[in-house]
Structures are given as C-alpha cells and as structure tokens.
Automatic annotation (TrEMBL):
One of its GO terms (biological process) is glucan catabolic process. Belongs to the glycosyl hydrolase 3 family. GO terms for cellular component: periplasmic space. It is found in: Periplasm. InterPro entries: Cellulose_Degrad_GH3, Fn3-like, GH, Glyco_hydro_3_AS, Glyco_hydro_3_C, Glyco_hydro_3_C_sf, Glyco_hydro_3_N, Glyco_hydro_3_N_sf. PANTHER family: LYSOSOMAL BETA GLUCOSIDASE, PERIPLASMIC BETA-GLUCOSIDASE-RELATED. Residues 685-754 form the Fibronectin type III-like domain. Keywords: Glycosidase, Hydrolase, Periplasm, Signal. NCBIfam families: PRK15098.1. This is Periplasmic beta-glucosidase. GO terms for molecular function: beta-glucosidase activity. It catalyses: Hydrolysis of terminal, non-reducing beta-D-glucosyl residues with release of beta-D-glucose. Residues 1-24 form the signal peptide.
Length: 765
C-alpha cells in the first residue's frame, strides 16, 4: 500500500471520528426535525402521504423539454417519494426541480442507486473486498464511493448487502462478504461508516440501506429468489448478526428481501419487520421493499395487489419499490379498515425524516453540484486507490516452485477469454461504471511492463462454448466478445503463442454476469472449453499461471492438481488489470484470504468451516469411516478452507500462549502468538483467532472466528500478535434466544486459516 493512500485513509477515518464530536446537540436537532415534519404532515393529503411511500422505476424518466411523461406528472402531483438508478447530477437536478418547483408541497425527492462496490471508480466486487480482511480499506472504499455518488446526485445507496451465503451456486454470493457471521458483521459496520460518516447532512455522505432483510443468502439449492426455511436459533446466531451490526453502526434504511421466512414473504412479515426489527432491535430508520417486492407477494400466494399492499404496510414496510401498490390501493384499504391512518403516517414520517437527515429540505440540490461531479468522480487519485485496494483482495491459491512473482520474463503469452476484456473487469452490479474505461489485464501488463517484456496475446477460447449460454451472460453492457472461430483454431493460436514464450498467463474463469442477481449455476466448475485450453497450454511444458476471474467459489479440483500457480482475482473493478499486473510482477505481495470455503464438488454444498460436530463426526485425518458423517465418494475436506490464502513469502506461527487458564465474567484473557516472516519477501498476513465452546446447552460450532489482525512483516521479522478475549466474545443465542455465555471449557485456535491453527484451552468461570 502506497504511503499516499495510507495517509488518505487515515485522514478520512480521523475526520469520521471528529465528526462524531461535532454533531451538535442531537436531541435539539431531533426535536427540530420532529416539529418540522409534524407541521409538514399536517398540510399533506392522504394521496401526498402515500406518494412519499412510492419509489417507482425511473427507467423512462425524461427531463428538461420532455418532462411531461408519466413519472414527471406523478412527481408534480406529489405521488413520488424518490427515484433510483438515474445517473448524473444534471439529470437528477432537473428531476428534483420538478418536485420542488412544480409539486404542491415542494417536498424534495430522495435519489437512490445501487452503489455496491464503488460508483464510477469501481472497486472489487464485495466478495473480493471481504477477502482483504482490512476494515480500514473497506471503509475507505465506501467513503470514496459516497464521495463520488454524492457529487453526482445520489444520496442513498442500496448497500451494504450483508446476506450470509454458504451456497456458491447462488450468484449473489458475489455481492456479499462470504460465509462468516463475525467477519460479515465487521464489514457491514465498516461499509456503513464509510457511506454515512457521522453526519448525513454533509454533501459527501450518503444514506446506507442494509439488504436483503433477511436470510436471502439461504435460498434453497442456491436458486435465486427461492424459498428459505431456517430455525430461529440458526437465524439469531448465524444469519441475523450482520444486519444488526449494520443497523448498530447507524444505517438509516433497510431493504426487505424477496424470500419467505417462516412461510411469509419478508416483505409482508410482521414478525421480521416490526417485532424483531423495530421492537427488539429498536430500529428507527425506514424499510424499503426490494424491486417489486410487494407485487411479488401475489405469485408467492398471498393475495392480489390490494391485499399484499396492506399486508406489507401492516408488516412494517415504509417504501414501495416499483410495485405501485401502496400508492394505488391503500386508500381503499383504509376505507375498509384494513390499514390504519397511523400506519400510513408512521411510514410517511420515516421517509420524511430520512430526507430531513440528509439535509434535502435545507437544500434539495445538495447532492447535485455539477462542478463537484466534474472534479470528484473517477479522479486519478480515486483510480489509484482502487488499484491499490484491488491488489489487497486477490487470493493466491497455489504457487508451486515460486512460479510467481514473474521475474525476468522476456516473452509472456497472455491467453484466455478474460485477458483482453475491459467490460468484464468491474463485475456484477456496477451501475455507474464506465466499462470501456476499465483496465484489462492486457492493458495492465503493458502499463506495468513497458518495454521490459514482449506480450503475445491470444483469446484461446470463448468463456463458454454454448452460444445460447453466452447470450445469457453477455448482458448489461458486458459482452463476452464471442469469437466465432473454431475451438481448435483458437487453441492452436494460443499454443503457438505459448511455445514462443517463457511463461503463460491464462486469464480464465467466469465472465462478470455469470454471477450476481439471477445468475445461479448448478455446475460451478470452469467451463469445459476453458479446461481444454488449459490442458493444451500445460502440454507445451511452459509454466502456466492461472489468473482466475470469478464471482463465487468454484470447484477447480483439476486446476488445483495440475496448474502450478493460481491467483484468484474475483472481479477487481476499474483498475483490475493494473492491480493484477502489480501482483503478478511482484510489485505487491498478495495477502487476501478466502471469506468463503471452496468445495470440492457441488454435492458437498453447503460446506462451511463453522459447522456443527454431529454425534458421529469423522475422526480427524480420516477420509471415510462407515457409520460416520461423511460421503462414500468424496472426503469432507474443502478444496480450499475459509481463511485460506498464500503469500509470496511464508509465515510461521509459534508459541501460542494464554495469559491465564481461566477467564472470569469480568476478566480479560490475552491470547498471543509469535508470527515470523520466514520467506524472502516483505508481506502481510491475516492472523485469525477462532474459538470452540466445548459443552453447551445447545450444540456449538466446531470453530468460530472471533478475531483477526492483518499484520505486515518485513522478511525475517518476528512479531508477537496479541488478542484479548472477554466473556462477551463467548456469548451466543440459546434455545430461549437469550444472548448468554455458559461457563465451561473452551478451545482457542490461532493460525493462518480455519483449517491450520495452533490450539490451546481455557475455562470460563
Ligand atoms: C435487487 C436489489 C437492488 C434492487 C434495485 C433488485 O433486483 O435485488 O439488490 O438494490 O434491485 O436495483
């Protein structure tokens, strides 16, 4: 990490801390807001109140001369509360002008967008970001995203997505932080802080929206939008904490998920949206549905639009994304006594409060400064930060014979369907990105190598061999660039390039839109045609480096067994190519660690490190035993475990020590380990601490992450890394859903990944 970026991160984070001290008299501010909104609401008709709850699709909005379209008319009539996914300060300003100049009460609109991993400067996909295990960096990326988005008209982002996901068939694993509750919660908090700072009124902070509430990541069979069904004890211990963490960090809005929970769609689930969210957690921001979430309750089997709109409002929904249900049916439901005026008022108040907190009533154009947009979006500084951040997210999965970093290579063959494809670098959900301006791997290698090496490029094969599948994944402005030559011809060209080279870099994997929303896969291996290419390249006898692009864990068993070096780069954003070149050429030493288990095959799914032991666990070191919990045809091991990631250097762990053999309810237990950089490069290591509660009133996982530190060591350096555990770290939800710890034996594990740790024990008194 360059000094400039480190300094910028420090400055940005310090200003966040300072802001918390300068937030003047919050209760006075609160009172002022409440009075303002009460007065405003007194003037509002029922229709205008329902208008505030309406978030229509803005696809057809035409501004300026053509502003007399349907949505513009609705805005004038006070029937729109906000719009989303419109890009540019000018456009948003023009639409806002309609609201504040031509509607009766001049209530400003709120403008949202899916700013998921960066705005125009795109950072790695969230799954990649989570592999940095670097909270300051993640917060900083969200800060830059907020800075850019707020300069360009946006004051509300539909992020962070904090759904725990343990099924890599689900395409949306790419949008979250992986399988772990503890890591996911920390990341959720960092992102909220990055977006919102501590003062939403500032023109460079934006409102976060935690999504998708709840359990969306547990869709059966990894099929998007599918049913979820889960015990409450699992929900509370494993799936709900990241949402709660994001709200505790101050997130001002939350999005209901598409799936059902306990047989009732989240959008109409009163237990979820009121009993848990409002009563138990004390959330006072607003709830928005997901896209057509209300209307989708009809095919879920919950009734017609009128019935499901009332269901949603009564459950606790405040804003209706795209269904038009609250706007068009609630008046009738009110007359019939199916909803109350109080419910409508509560929802309306929450939307107005969010607008107030964002400062939109003081200045509706606060986020539409065209000059700021020109000066602050996609700047060289932000791109430099994206490059440095991206390099921290790559996970080195294999590096036999120190194949990497590449040194003194005169001729490099760069082969593969993702080697020269700028549009596929940003990854899924990069709404504001300018894909053509992304840096491809070919661009990046040329930039970093200059005249030092000769690069021979060949596409080698298509992403997939089936043109119908190719069409499905060549969407949203991200074509795979289908080449109609025969596979044989393309491979022959690649092999010829390889034969003339000192090393082969194979840029293979998924294209951007093979993961993300509605991109579930039942087979998560590398497409056969790409494997054929790899086989042909290996047959040349040249060293092959596989640069793996992916939005999910993949079953790459054959690749792991046969290819000497594998660098997993996810989808790394605008600066992908430069960042990958920096790592391949050793300018940056990789330090990413997996936040999701890679399974050996789809049959093992769900496979995650913090599973339960069962009554018949397989003995350690065994592959199979009859009448034990295992498979006949595959071991229980993952292909790569949670927390795994190599470095160009090596790290040794020694002397795991506990400050005591007992921990009391008010005490502290220090856990320390000596970490030595025993290899030939300076580098960073994520030291991971796990615990196991040996005996409980309910069964406890075999390991649970409870701490981590990313430590940078010069080669040869040794450092003692210290963690502190308290009784609070050992709490969990028991069968009464009470958050408790239970005295008894605990194990503590510290190591380089979830499967390779040193071990000690203590007793909670
Ligand atoms: C997605 C959300 C997204 C929304 C608005 C939906 O299809 O599930 O994650 O925020 O669209 O674009």
């Amino acid at each position: 990490m360059k000094k400039t970026t480190t300094l910028l991160i420090l400055l940005a984070l310090c200003s966040t801390v300072l802001m918390s001290f300068t937030f003047a008299n919050p209760s006075g501010e609160d009172l002022k807001m409440k009075t303002f909104i009460e007065n405003l609401m007194k003037k509002m008709t029922l229709e205008e109140k329902l208008g505030q709850l309406n978030l229509p699709a803005s696809g057809d909005i035409i501004t300026g001369a053509g502003s007399n379209n349907n949505i513009a008319e609705k805005i004038k009539e006070g029937k729109v509360g906000g719009l989303f996914n419109i890009k540019s300060a000018e456009k948003i300003r023009a639409v806002q002008q309609i609201a504040v100049e031509q509607s009766r009460l001049k209530i400003p609109l709120i403008f949202g967008m899916d700013v998921i991993h960066g705005y125009q400067t795109v950072f790695p996909i969230p799954l990649g970001m989570s592999c940095s295990w670097d909270m300051a960096l993640i917060e900083y990326s969200a800060r830059i995203a907020a800075q850019e988005a707020s300069a360009d008209g946006i004051c509300w982002t539909f992020s962070p997505m904090v759904d725990i996901a343990r099924d890599p068939r689900w395409g949306r694993v790419s949008e979250g932080s992986g399988e772990d509750t503890y890591l996911g919660s920390k990341i959720a908090q960092s992102m909220v802080k990055g977006y919102q700072g501590d003062d939403l009124r500032k023109n460079n902070t934006i409102l976060a929206c935690v999504k998708h509430f709840a359990l969306y990541g547990a869709a059966e069979a990894g099929r998007d939008y599918n049913t979820t069904d889960m015990s409450h004890i699992r929900m509370y211990n494993e799936y709900l904490p990241p949402y709660k963490a994001a709200l505790d960090a101050g997130a001002g809005s939350i999005m209901a998920s598409f799936n059902e929970i306990d047989g009732i769609p989240a959008t109409g689930n009163k237990w979820l949206l009121t009993d848990l969210l409002r009563k138990e957690w004390g959330f006072n921001g607003f709830v928005v549905t997901d896209y057509t979430g209300i209307a989708e309750m009809t095919p879920h089997g919950m009734g017609d639009l009128k019935a499901v709109s009332a269901l949603a409002l009564n459950a606790g929904v405040d804003m209706d994304m795209v269904s038009d249900g609250l706007l068009t049916t609630i008046e009738a439901s009110l007359k019939e006594g199916k909803v109350t005026q109080q419910k409508i008022d509560e929802a309306c108040r929450r939307i107005l409060e969010a607008k107030y907190k964002l400062g939109l009533f003081d200045d509706p154009y606060r986020y539409c400064d065209v000059n700021r947009a020109k000066a602050e979006v996609f700047t060289p500084e932000n791109r430099q930060a994206a490059r440095e951040i991206a390099a921290q997210t790559f996970v080195l999965l294999k590096n036999d014979n120190q194949t990497l970093p590449l040194q003194n290579k005169k001729t490099i063959a760069l082969v593969g369907p993702l080697a020269d494809n700028r549009e596929n670098m940003p990854g899924t959900w990069s709404v504001a990105g300018d894909f053509a301006k992304s840096v491809s791997l070919l661009d990046g290698l040329k930039n970093v190598l200059g005249n030092e090496a000769n690069i021979l490029y060949a596409m080698g094969t298509n992403v997939v061999s089936d043109p119908k599948l190719d069409a499905r994944i060549s969407i949203f402005g991200k074509p795979t660039k289908w080449d109609s030559r025969s596979q044989k011809e393309m491979i022959a060209e690649a092999v010829a390039a390889a034969q003339k080279s000192d090393v082969v870099i194979a840029a293979v994997g998924e294209s951007s839109e093979m993961s993300g929303e509605a991109s579930s896969r039942s087979d998560i291996s590398l497409p056969e045609n790409q494997k054929e290419l790899l086989e042909a390249l290996l047959a040349t006898g040249k060293p092959v480096v596989m640069v793996l692009f992916t939005g999910r864990p993949l079953t790459i068993n054959w690749e792991k067994a046969n290819i000497p070096a594998i660098l997993n780069v996810w989808f790394a954003g605008s600066e992908a190519g430069n960042a990958i070149a920096d790592v391949l050429l050793g300018k940056v030493n990789p330090s990413g660690k997996l936040s999701s288990t890679f399974p050996q095959n789809v049959g093992q799914i769900p496979l995650y490190y913090n599973h339960k032991n069962t009554g018949r666990p397989l003995d350690e070191g065994k592959w199979f035993s009859k009448f034990r919990s295992n498979y006949l045809d595959v071991s229980n091991d993952p292909l790569f475990p949670f927390g795994f990631g190599l470095s160009y250097t090596t790290f040794d762990y020694k002397n795991l020590k506990l400050s005591d053999s007992n921990l009391t309810a008010t005490g502290k237990l220090k856990v320390s380990v000596d970490l030595n950089n025993s290899g030939n490069y300076d580098g960073a290591e994520v030291v991971q601490l796990y615990i196991r509660d040996m005996v409980g009133s309910v069964t406890r996982p075999v390991k649970e992450l409870k701490g981590f530190q990313k430590v940078f060591l010069k080669k040869g350096e040794t450092r003692t890394v210290e963690f502190t555990l308290t009784e609070k770290d050992l709490r969990f939800y028991n069968s009464d859903l009470k958050f408790v710890s239970e005295p008894g034996d605990f194990k503590v594990f510290v190591g380089t990944n979830s499967a390779n740790t040193l071990e000690a024990g203590f007793v909670l008194k």
